[in-house]
Amino acid sequence: MSTKTTIPDFRITPTVDQVGVEERVARFTTRSIKKESKMQGMKMILSMIDLTTLEGKDTEGKVKQMCYKAAHLHDIIPGLPTVAAVCVYPSMVKTAKDALIGTGVKVASVSTAFPSGQSTHEIKISDTKFAIANGADEIDMVISRGEFLKGNYNFVFDEIAAIKQACGKARLKVIFETGELSTLDNIRKVSDIAMYAGADFIKTSTGKISPAATMPVTLVMLEAIRDYYYATGRMVGMKPAGGISTSKLALQYLIMVNETLGADWLSNEWFRFGASSLANDVLMQIAKQNTGVYQCSDYFSKD
Amino acid sequence: MARIEIQKTYKIYIGGQFPRTESGRYYPLKNKKGDVIANICLCSRKDFRNAEVAARAAQSGWGSRAAFNRAQILYRIAEMLEGRKEQFISELLLQGSTLAAAKKEVEISIDRMVYYSGWCDKFQAIYSSVNPVASSHFNFSVPEPTGVVAIIADETTSLLGLVTAIAPVIAGGNTCIVLASETKPLCAVTFAEVLNSSDLPGGVVNILTGTAAELHEHFSNHMDVNTVIYYRNNKAEIKTIKENASLNVKRVFVYNKINIATEKAESPYFIFDTQEIKTTWHPIENIGASKAGY
Predicted confidence band at B47 (pLDDT cuts at 50, 70, 90)? Predict the structure, then answer.
């Protein structure tokens, strides 16, 4: 961050007009994207997916299987992209890294005692460094929601900054777990805190609690990114995660990004979907466009 | 001043809800005199797709219910039909039936629902077997529901055709999407209201209205449909359905030779048609005639 940037007083971040946000979001769902542009959009969605497995029951075998899927989404259909990254627990980073050699797919690791974030500072730092040492290209950290809700914004800011430092060259995604933050005002505030503290991406949710990503929440975060960009000139990425499982909904998110931030953000460098089941729905839609026949999930690999 | 009668708006039935067609299209239904008696949804490919998604989502839950519970629910449907008898009769009259014929159609429909209700927990016993095999296995075969069934129902009847088509399919634990009669669709939505108040989970039966000419193609080429049943006589449609079914090897049944007003349309074999036989080889220590292994 350049020394010229002044950090604003987070107690006075702008408030959000909830009704206005909902009305705006409702309009994104009325756009009609058909045929060729729909195909382009769906391929773009595939290239923006962080294929995710974050289960207690994950094994090396499961992760390897998913990594294969990440690079070979559906080989019957030629010309498909790979997904952007796979997202795993730190203990699986090495497995994923080895499995993805030569594919161009990145490895993202969750960290900082994901998903609760309830641990000590030292453990969070060493969690992050462990993932980086094993080859993670991206770190998905969770913020301390309890501290944020108490109003301890400095704590949250300092923690993000410390993890950013521990990341080195790896890109840092900051997960807010918006389902626990109650209000859009809080989401706007935490977006500002994270971006000024050095986040490369801001991300809605862990996927572990409901509601996860919703369109109003994502719009508030996109607007925060836009305002931050105007203030500092630095681009920050966005990653809605959890609950986006159909291509129709994903296309509406792309429309929202385009109409809020512009086409510069429409690449997997600046926008990602955190999802596990979205890929197959998009693949089924692409197969439908190619064959003219509605598809059945039995014919698409699960992982 | 003469009162203007409120005409019922006939909607479709998908996933336990009563939406209008997503296409926004309608066709006017006329009586013998040529007066419009109702506007009916002209369903599209996308309505079928939505119905299929609902049917697929409902299938595992419905198929894994206790057979006895399915019987209870089918019987409940019959009870609700009985309670709404007068409404069905008046709708049949509107569509040109005589009073005697209308009464008869409704009564056969109710009785047929009871008939298949009775079979729900009995057909498995008939179609199952324990098979003799020449190895140390306990080998048995049982019928299981095939999954999602797309049905193009009889064109000549309004209620009976629907009941005849739906009852054996859901008795066996399948879910279905049914295209109601194009020229006599009035009972379809009233029947959907009966289903909706009969403890039948949403999505098990989905009822569309419209033309087979437009929809038979989509009914038969959807990769996530397991069986297609066809009750009409259009040879070209039958040919297309059979060709499309080969895409994912759907079962196809054409029941246009059966007089559905008679008992010929009541048989557990209609349940069997939408079942698949699963055979299990269960290893055992030794078989009857062999010596003890120790």
Answer: very high
Alpha helix (H) ranges present in A12-118?
18-28, 35-47, 60-71, 93-99
Q: Confirm if A138 and A115 have CB atoms less than 8 A apart.
A: no
Tens of pLDDT along A54-77? 999 999 999 999 999 999 999 999
The pLDDT assigned to B293 comes to: 54
The count of domains in chain B is 1
Q: How many CB atoms lie within 10 A of CB B201?
A: 16
Is the pLDDT at B96 greater than 70, yes or no? yes
Nearest CA to A85 out of A62, A111, A67 is that of: A67
Strand order in the sheet with B137-145: B129-131, B137-145, B275-283
Q: Do B49 and A294 touch (CB under 8 A)?
A: yes
Instruction: Give dist(CA A288, CA B224) in Å, integer.
Output: 12
Q: How far apart are CA A244 and CA A241, in angstroms?
A: 7
Q: Which domain holds residue B206?
A: 26-283
Asked if B224 and A294 come within 8 Å (Cβ–Cβ), the reply is yes
User: C-alpha dihedral over A193, A195, A199, A200, to 10 degrees?
Assistant: 160
Is A294 in contact with B248 (Cβ distance < 8 A)? no
Residue B95 falls within a domain, yes or no? yes
Report the residue from A293, A298, A299 with minimal CB separation from B222.
A293
Distance CA B59, CA B148 (A): 7
B224 close contact with A: CB closer than 8 A: yes
Task: Name the amino acid, one letter, at B121.
Answer: D
**Domain coordinates in residue numbering, chain A:** 10-299
Cβ contact A28:A215 at 8 Å: yes
Report the pLDDT value the prediction gives residue B6, as an integer from 0 to 100: 76
Name every chain B residue with its beta carbon within 8 A of the beta carbon of A296: 222-224, 248
Q: Report yes or no: B31 at the A interface, CB cutoff 8 Å.
A: no
In a domain, B241, yes or no: yes
Please measure the distance between the N-terminal and C-terminal CA atoms of chain A and give it in whole angstroms: 39
Q: Catalytic residue numbers of A?
A: 140, 203, 239
Residues of A with CB under 8 A from a CB of B: 292-299
B117 found inside a domain = yes
**Superfamily for the A10-299 domain:** Aldolase class I (3.20.20.70)
Q: What is the ipTM of this complex?
A: 0.81
- Strand, helix or coil for residue B26: strand
Q: How far is CA B109 from the centre of its chain?
A: 13
**Dihedral of alpha carbons B164, B165, B167, B171, sign:** positive
Given A293, A298, A299, which is nearest B221 (Cβ)? A293
The verdict on a CB contact (< 8 Å) between B224 and A297 is yes
